[in-house]
Amino acid sequence: ERREREREMGRLSTLLALGLSLDAGAYALVVGPAGGRRTASPTMSASAGPPYQGPRSTPLLDQVSLPKDLKGFSLAELKQLSHELRWETINAVSKTGGHLGSSLGVVELTVALHYVFNTPEDPVIFDVSHQVYPHKILTGRRHRMPTLRQNGGISGFAKRAESEYDIFGAGHSTTSISAALGMAVAHELQGLDKVRTSIAVIGDGAITGGMAYEAMNNAAYLNSRIVVIYNDNEQVSLPTGTPSAGGTVPAGSLSAYTSRLIASKPFQDFRDIAKSINKLFPSEIQQANAKIDEYARGMVSGGTLFEELGFYYIGPVDGHDLDNLVPILENIRDRGGKQPVLLHIKTDKGKGYPPAEQASDKYHGVPKFDVATGKKLTTPAKTPSYTSVFADSLIDIAATDRSVVAITAAMPGGTGVDKFGKRFPKRTFDVGIAEQHAVTFAAGLAVEGIKPFCAIYSTFMQRAYDQLIHDVALQKLPVRFILDRAGLVGNDGPTHHGSFDLAYIGCIPGMVICSPSDEVELKNMVQTVYELDDKPSALRYPRGSALGLDVLNDLFGYGLDAYPEKGVALPLGKGRIMRKAREDAKRKVAILSFGTRLAESVQAARHIETIDEEVGVTVADARWMKPLDTELVVQLATEHEVLITCEEGSIGGFGDHVLHFLALGGYLDDGKLKVRPMVLPDKYIEAGSMGEQYEEAGLSQRFIEATAMRLLGKEMKIRSSALVDEEPTIA
C-alpha cells in the first residue's frame, strides 16, 4: 500500500507541476512511474535472445473462464495475468498461424477492458478484429484456440455467432465507431435506466479510413455515451515502411497538420517550460517525465483534432502500463454525462516477443513458427505466387513507361506493390485504408494521362463501389483495377473471400473484365490491360502459388523450358480451346472455365474420357467475361449437348453472362442444349484451407466430373477427395 501511495503521489506531482488534470482539461498527460512506458520486471520479460520461452505454468489464467473471473484480481495480478495471456497467445498462434503482432500489442488493453467494464453488457467492438486472440482466450474460448482459423474451428476475427462477447463481427476496417454509436443510441432509444458504455477499439491503420471521421462527427452531434480507444502503434500499412511517393512514413498520418502545430511558437515555449520544470523534480520524477516531449506532441496536436470533432480527448497513455490504464478506464467508466470520449493509447505491435518486435511487419500475419527461435515453419515455394507474377510484370512495364504508377490501400505486401515501391518509390502510392479515395485518386491520375494500376483485394474493392461506377466507369477512364485474392482465400474465411467481384463489376457498362488461368496468362493480361487506354478494366486472380512449368506443360501443352520474360498482349474478348473432345465420341460435353478452375477442368475431362469411352470432353478457357467471346460460346453450344461453365465467384457472374447471351440468342429454345453454371454456393464458406473450401463449394475436379456425367444421364458416384496439407493463408 505504501508503494502504491508513493507511485500515486509521483504521478500527481507530475500532473500538478505541469498544470494539468485528468478531470479539469482535455489535454491530460499520464506518465507511468518508469518514464511513460512501464519496464517489465525480469520475471515478466522474455529472454534477451533465443531460446525464447514463456512461463512454465499459468496459475492466474487458469482461474479465468470468463471476464467476471478476473474482477477480484489486484493490479499486480493483472500484470501477471497479462504476461501469461501474452505467452498463451504466442504458443497458440505458433501452432496454427494467424495474426500475432496486433494481438500481442493489445494484451494489457484487453485485460483492462474486461476488468473495468461489465462485458458483454458494456459492448467492446474491436475494429478489424484481427487483434482479438487475447479477447477470445479470456471469453471462454481458450480450449478452442488449437482450432483457430481451421476448418470447423473458431474464426480469426470477432464473430457474433461464436460468442456473446463478440458483439459485432468484423474483418474489414473502420466500422467500430459507427457500430458502437449505433449500440449506444439503441440503448437510449429503449429507455433503459442502466448506465452503459459502448467501447470501440480502433487502430491508427483503421482510423485512416474516412468512415471513422464520419462516425466521430455524428457521435458528437448525437451526444451518446461511447468511448473510442485509439490504439496508436505506428503500423498503418502491411508492412509499414514501404518506399512510396510519401516516403516510408505511415500513410495517412496527418503529418502536415501536426507539423504546423508542433512548429508553432506557443508549443515551442511549452516544451521549453516543461523541460525546465522537469529539472526541479527529484530524479525519480525526472525519469517519469523522460518522454514528456513525445507525449506533449500528442497532447497538443491530437487533442486539438479530436476535440474539434466533439470528443473529450485523453492521452496519449501507455497502453502497456496497467498502473495508469486501469484507473483511467475506471474514471472514464464512472464519469457523468454522455459526451463521447477518445482515449489515445500508444502501444507496441508485437510487444513481448522479440522476434515480432524486431520484424519489419511485427509478425502481423505469420504461418506456424517455432516459439523458441521465432523461425517461421514454411516450405519454400516451388512456383511463384500470382501476386509476385503481377508485381514483376508491372515492374517490367514501368521500366519503359514512366507514366505507369501503382496504388494500394494499406496492403503493399499483400498486393505486391511493396516490390514495385522498392524499384519506383516516387510512382508508388499507399493511401492508407481508404479504398474509396484510392479509386477516385486513380481516376484523377488517369484524367491527366497517367496509367494507374489500382491494386486492391477483391473483398476490399467492395468498399469503393460507388467510386468505381461514378468516378471511373461512367467517365470511361482507363484505370486498371488489379483484384488480388479473387475467389476463396483460405484461413481468413468469409470476410476475406473475393466472391462477389464478378457479379458487382460485371453489371457495370463499359468495364473490361479478365481472369487468367495460370501465371503465363497473368503476365499476358497485365500487358493487355496496360495497353487499354480508352476504358477501365478489372484483372482478377487468386491468392497462393501458381501452377509451375511442369503442370503448365502437362495440362495445357505449353512446351516451355522457362517462363517467358515478357508478357504479350492478348486479343480483347477472345478465349481459347485448351483440348477438344475426341472425334469418335458419341456424347460430347464442353467445359468453359473462367479463371484458375481451368486446371481442374482439364483434369476432370481427362478422367471422364478415361472411364467412359462414349464421352468426349472439350475444355475452353474464356479469358474474358467482358467482352464475352460470343463466337466461342456459340461454337461450344452448337457442337456439344452439354455446356458447363466454371468460375471462382458467386451467382451473377460469368456463368450468368453466358446464360443471358444464350437465352437472348435463342440457343436454348429447342431444348437440345443442357447448360449448367458452376459457381460458389449461396452461403458464406468458413475458414479452412483453400482445398477444403473448394471441396465444400463443389468446384473441385470430382464435382466437375459428376456434373458432366449427371447431365449425360450417367450416374457417377462423387469420388472422395484427396486433399493435401496446405500452409495457413494470411491476408
From TrEMBL:
Top-level taxon of origin: Eukaryota
Annotated Transketolase-like pyrimidine-binding domain residues: 384-549
Keywords: Isoprene biosynthesis, Magnesium, Metal-binding, Thiamine biosynthesis, Thiamine pyrophosphate, Transferase
PROSITE patterns: TRANSKETOLASE_1, TRANSKETOLASE_2
EC number: 2.2.1.7
Pathway: Metabolic intermediate biosynthesis; 1-deoxy-D-xylulose 5-phosphate biosynthesis; 1-deoxy-D-xylulose 5-phosphate from D-glyceraldehyde 3-phosphate and pyruvate: step 1/1
Record-linked InterPro entries: Dxylulose-5-P_synthase, THDP-binding, Transketo_C/PFOR_II, Transketolase-like_Pyr-bd, Transketolase_BS, Transketolase_C, Transketolase_CS
Region of interest (Disordered), ranges: 38-57
Complexes and interactors: Homodimer.
Name under which the protein is recorded: 1-deoxy-D-xylulose-5-phosphate synthase
